[in-house]
Design a protein that fits this description.
This protein is of the alpha/beta class and about 375 residues long. Helices cover about 45% and strands about 10% of the residues. The protein has helices at about 15-25, 35-45, 70-80, 85-90, 95-105, 115-120, 135-145, 165-175, 185-190, 200-210, 235, 240-250, 265-275, 290-295, 295-300, 320-330, 335-355, 360-365; strands spanning about 5, 10-15, 50, 110, 180-185, 210-215, 255-260, 280, 310. The strands form three sheets. It has a five-stranded parallel β-sheet. Strands 1-2 form a two-stranded antiparallel sheet. Strand 7 (about 255-260), helix 13 and strand 8 (about 280) form a beta-alpha-beta unit. Helix 2 (about 35-45) crosses helix 16 and helix 8 packs parallel to helix 10 (about 200-210). The longest helix has 20 residues, at about 335-355. The radius of gyration is 19 Å and the shape is globular. The chain starts with a strand and ends with a helix.
Length: about 375
C-alpha cells in the first residue's frame, strides 16, 4: 500500500495529489470534481460555510464585462487557440450552472459587478468594443434574488467617469438595490482613485457606510499582449500614495484591497498595518504560489495581520473546488484558514451583511 504524505492539512498519496492537481485545471471551472468535493466536504463537516467575498459571474452573458480582455485571457491563462466571443459564450456557464458549484461545495457567494461603459464600451482607451457589456447593478441584485441560498449578498459597481450619474447610481445600488458595497477595477476603468474629482464618490460611500473594493497590484488584463492591450499598470500599482490617500482622507470608509498586490505587496502590507479601515483578500493567484510570489503577505497573513484577511476565489476564472483544495494544501498556522474562510468576514463585514438582510446565525453559532 502506498504511504500517504502530509500536504498542509491534508494527507494524500503523492500520485493522488499529482492527479488531482492536473484534473482541477483540465476541466471547465464551473464543473465540480467529485473527488475534490468529497475531500472538501469532509474538511468542512460541522463548520459554517466559507464566505467568498470576491467572485465574478462570468456566465454566458456576464463574461462580456471583460470584453476583448476575456478572449485574450483564454489564450494567456489557459493556452486555448482560436478563441472568439462565440466560443467563450458556448463554454461559459448559465447562471444556474454558475451557482451550482457553490451549492455543491457548501460555500456562500458575494459576487461583484463590473461597470466600465466609458472606458471599455464606448471610447478609448479600450473601446469601442462590440463584445463588451457591463455586469450592471441590476444584474447583481437579480443574481442574489434568484439564488438566495447561495448568493447571500452582492457587490455593485459604478462607472467613475459619469459625474452626477455616477453618484446617483451609487446611491441607488446601496439604498434601493441593497447591494453590500461597490467594487472598482482601476485599470479597466482607467482612473486614479486619489484624483480629487472622484472624492465625492468616496465621500458618498463613507456617508452611506458602504464598503468598497479596490483592485491592487498586477492585473492579468491584457497580460502578455503587445502593449498589454493598452492597459496601464499605474492605476493599480501606485498603492502609495493612491490607496493610502483615500484610506487616510476617508477614515470611516471600509476598504478591501483585492488580490495579492503582486509587485506592490510591501506597500499593501504596510497600508493594511497602518490603516485600521483597510482589509485584504488574496484571489487571483493559485494559493500554492502565495509563499513564493508574495512572501511578505504570506508571512503577515500567518502572523500579526491574520485578522485582516478574507477569502476570495476569483471564480470562475479559477475553479472554486481547486482554490479551496489548494488552500488546504498550504501550511497555514493553526486557526488562520478558518479566520480567513469566515470568522474575519463576519467580524469585518458582519454589520454590512446584516444591513442588506443577511442572517448571521449560521456563522455566529459556530
Amino acid at each position: 500500500m502506498t504511504q500517504k504524505k502530509r500536504f498542509g492539512s491534508l494527507e494524500l498519496e503523492e500520485k493522488t495529489k499529482l492527479r488531482l492537481d492536473k484534473e482541477m485545471r483540465g476541466k471547465p471551472f464551473h464543473k465540480v470534481n467529485e473527488e475534490l468535493k468529497a475531500l472538501i466536504k469532509e474538511k468542512r463537516k460541522g463548520l459554517p460555510r466559507p464566505i467568498d467575498v470576491h467572485c465574478h459571474p462570468y456566465t454566458k452573458v456576464g463574461w462580456r464585462s471583460l470584453g476583448q480582455f476575456r478572449t485574450h485571457l483564454e489564450g494567456y491563462l489557459y493556452g486555448k487557440k482560436g478563441v472568439t466571443p462565440e466560443t467563450v459564450t458556448a463554454e461559459s456557464p448559465t447562471d444556474e450552472e454558475w451557482v451550482s458549484a457553490y451549492r455543491e461545495l457548501g460555500v456562500a457567494a458575494t459576487p461583484v459587478g463590473w461597470e466600465a461603459d466609458t472606458t471599455m464600451g464606448i471610447r478609448p482607451p479600450y473601446g469601442p468594443d462590440p463584445s463588451y457589456r457591463s455586469n450592471y447593478n441590476d444584474d447583481m441584485a437579480s443574481l442574489r434574488d434568484r439564488f438566495p441560498d447561495v448568493v447571500i449578498a452582492a457587490w455593485g459597481s459604478v462607472d467613475p467617469w459619469q459625474g452626477k450619474k455616477t453618484l446617483e447610481e451609487a446611491e441607488r445600488a446601496i439604498k434601493k438595490l441593497k447591494l453590500i458595497g461597490l467594487k472598482f477595477q482601476q485599470t479597466g476603468q482607467a482612473f486614479m482613485i486619489n484624483d480629487p474629482q472622484f472624492y465625492p464618490l468616496w465621500d458618498l460611500l463613507q456617508e452611506m457606510r458602504a464598503p468598497v473594493q479596490f483592485h491592487c497590484g498586477y492585473t492579468g488584463l491584457g497580460g502578455g499582449a503587445p502593449g498589454g492591450l493598452g492597459i496601464k499598470l499605474k492605476y493599480t500599482m501606485e498603492l502609495i500614495p493612491c490607496l493610502d490617500d483615500v484610506a487616510a482622507d476617508f477614515p470611516n470608509l471600509k476598504i478591501v484591497m483585492l488580490h495579492h498586490a503582486e509587485g506592490r505587496e510591501e506597500d499593501a502590507v504596510l497600508i493594511c498595518r497602518h490603516k485600521g479601515n483597510v482589509y485584504r483578500e488574496l484571489s487571483g493567484m493559485w494559493p500554492e504560489y502565495l509563499p513564493v510570489n508574495v512572501p511578505r503577505t504570506w508571512y503577515e497573513l500567518n502572523r500579526r495581520q491574520q485578522d485582516k484577511y478574507m477569502f476570495g476565489s476569483e471564480y470562475n476564472l479559477f475553479p472554486l473546488d481547486g482554490i479551496l483544495y489548494q488552500h488546504y494544501l498550504q501550511d497555514y498556522r493553526e486557526g488562520v484558514l478558518e479566520k480567513m474562510f469566515w470568522k474575519n468576514t463576519i467580524r469585518i463585514l458582519g454589520e454590512d451583511l446584516e444591513r442588506v438582510g443577511v442572517s448571521l446565525k449560521e456563522w455566529e453559532r459556530a
